[in-house]
Amino acid sequence: MAVPATDPVCGMNVDPEQTPHHADHQGTTYHFCSARCREKFIADPERHLSPAPAARSAPAPAGAIYICPMHPEVRQDHPGNCPICGMALEPEMPGLDDEENPELVDFSRRFWWTLPLTIVVVVLAMFGQYFQAWLSVDAQTWTELVLTTPVVLWAAWPFFVRCVQSIRNRSPNMWTLIGIGVAAAYLYSVVATVAPGLFPASFHEDGRVGVYFEAAAVIVSLTLLGQLLELRARSKTSAAIKALLGLAPKTARRLRDDGTEEDIELSHVHVGDRLRVRPGEKVPVDGTVLEGRSNLDESMLTGEPVPVEKSAGDTVIGATLNGNGSLVIRAEKIGSATVLAQIVQMVAQAQRSRAPMQRMADKAAYWFVLAVLAVAVITLFVWGLFGPEPSWTFAVLNAVSVLIIACPCALGLATPMSIMVATGRGAQAGVLFRDAEAIENFRRIDTLIVDKTGTLTEGRPAFRTAAGLAGFDETEVLRLAASLDQGSEHPLADAIVAEARRRELDLEKPEHFESSTGIGVRGTVGGRTLALGNTELMIEEGVDASPLREQAESLRQEGASVMFLAVDDSLAGLVAVADPIKASTPAAIRALHEAGLRIVMATGDGVTTAHAVARELGIDEVHGEVRPKDKVDLVQRLRAEGRKVAMAGDGINDAPALAGADIGIAMGTGTDVAMSSAQVTLVKGDLGGIARARQLSQATVGNMKQNLTFAFLYNGLGVPVAAGVLYPLTGLLLSPMIAALAMSLSSVSVVFNALRLGNARIE
Q: Are 32 and 22 in contact (CB under 8 A)?
């Protein structure tokens, strides 16, 4: 039986009666758009018949949706041309196994097959007098017609199709001008060749009516060349996405329930599967470590070069590289839910979004094309009626030159190219922009609101210091406290135990362990009765904590949590744990201050701790013990004062403020809710990314302005010259061939200027 006509490999619609590519599998006939898709299916049918893409452990296959690179609102499920600008639609999501751009292949074939014909036509037109011994004037004209016809009617056919579409859709664009210009030059020359008697005597020179086949052929060849250069350059903008896609491994090693293992394709991994990650392998999907201990290199996603130690209970990110240890993980997130897939989606979405500046350029290009058509018509009649003889020859040439040189392709490419390159550059620097508007507006930010925990600090407690009393030194206090805390599940206890193990202290197993919620723990270690907790616990135990109270208060002023240790009902020392400031935070704060930003901290932590961190970092304004609504109110108040506000946070409680700010900035180490509410995500989770994002925003907007300025100036100067305004003063006229060359070079220059962003210095 036949299934619905959808190619199971690429997802495109297929007409079963038209396509020659079919294959049978388990009694069902499948239809394919190409021989390549059929070969992929035959090689591994189950891979392409597995559940929907959302259930797979890799991003959805490319080719399902096609969109316009300049107008991302144009979307369809098959290839075609944009009804607005005429450009060929591209796959929304590139893939590693994508074939070469079909438009690039098609244009290359048309260009190289017809280039020799164009060269011969140009040689005949410019040096025909030298061939008159072998070729008469009439024969030369007919030879040019024969050689130019395939150039215009075959090589330029896509141009005419797009020209007609632009007129039908009432959306004049670059192809409107190119199509009309080439058609005018070619048809005029054809009529002059076939029926020269229709033209008045003023049109005749050197024994024939002047023809401009070489102009039409050269315009087509140069336009094709410009398109080839543009398409090749634009293909580089997907390099960032393909580089991210290339990080994912192709297979995973699954542990069966009977204890055996098997290698499976990544697309066959399901949530809950137990997977083994051997030394030197990449982690297949996001998950949690069940067994083993190892160091993971997460630099390919976070940019952090220092390997991160992972053991049972820790989370791991797919595509990160395992070190020398062996791990068994449980798959938690697959398909589009993985960190890697989300990063790829964000980069792709940002590359296809439109900046506010682009909307202005689109509107300008629309009216510009109409104005150029009007100028071309005026040029035709002014030169024809009032120009020197042969006036109508000059009229046709100058009108065609106006149409060609005014092509707004440079104007249309000015901002999309900058945005596409900038998002790729940002991904390399650990900064993910959700859309083009965020890139354009980030540079305007003058106030930054930051959360403390997880943004300025590591977000997890770490050992700060220990102090001994009455014969107990620091090491012994830490050893006893850690021995007792082995029975506790509190995060502060984890920090103390981790420090003791790092120092390789000899810990003893606690006995009679008892936890008193909110005040501390009690137990017996090595035959001695211990109590570890706050002042209230010491009071309950009848222990005088006053000898260390001043030191404890000093540590609290620095943002630390302090616990007293009592041994056999006597004060033995104290242990302090704090949420350490990220190593990158001080430098980031200095860079942001140097950039003129006002830094405001809003945290749910206590006021004392908040002020301690603010003093250390030099933060301008501090708000402690704030609730999620308070953060939203703070954002609204600052915006009401006329400030451009960015909010940086990592938790669910930050999401409302992130959504309400001019720019929401999420830490990549934070929650999915925070990242979905923000316009910018910092993969590494440090504030240094904000300074980099601001630099990139400034560089991108500067690049867009350069492109737009060049495009407007080029057209503003080129159109009058092509129309012959300077002829009465200088005798200067612009031939259609030179106009076509200038048009192509303008587009290529804009593309390559945008590509410079890929090498922008972002620190």
A: yes
In one-letter notation, the amino acid at residue 612 is A
By the 8 A CB rule, do 405 and 219 touch?
no
DSSP assigned state of 6 = B
CA distance 726 to 722: 9
- What is the 3-class SS of 103-147, one letter each residue? HHHHHHHHHHHHHHHHHHHHHHHHHHHHHCCCCCHHHHHHHHHHH
Angle at 650 between CA 427 and CA 457, to 5 degrees: 100
Can you say whether the dihedral through the CA atoms of 536, 537, 540, 546 is positive or negative?
negative
Q: Which two tokens stand for residue 638?
A: 């600052």
154, 399, 433 from 182: Cα distances, Å: 13, 11, 41
The count of residues in the chain is 763
How much is the pLDDT for 371?
Answer: 79
Q: What is the DSSP letter of 160?
A: H
> Do residues 251 and 267 lie in contact, with contact meaning Cβ atoms separated by under 8 Å?
no
The residues carrying an active-site annotation are 451
Q: What is the pLDDT of residues 190-225, one digit of tens each?
A: 888 888 876 656 556 666 766 778 777 877 887 787
> What is the C-alpha to C-alpha distance for residues 45 and 24, in angstroms, rounded to an integer?
10
Are 144 and 119 in contact, with CB atoms under 8 Å apart? no
Can you name the residues that pair with 578 across neighbouring β-strands? 462
Q: What is the CA radius of gyration of the chain?
A: 35
Give tens-digit pLDDT for 221-277: 877 876 776 666 556 555 555 666 677 788 888 998 888 888 888 878 888 889 999
Q: Residue 84 and residue 289: Cα distance in Å, rounded?
A: 51
In one-letter notation, the amino acid at residue 43 is A
| Rounded mean pLDDT, 526-544 | 87
> Which tokens go with 680?
């910018």
**Cβ–Cβ < 8 Å for 286, 332:** yes
- Burial, 337: exposed, middle or buried (Cβ in 10 Å; 0-12, 13-18, 19+)? middle
CB atoms within 10 A of CB 359: 11
Token output for 650: 């990592």
Q: Degrees (nearest 5) of the Cα angle 232, 235, 236?
A: 100
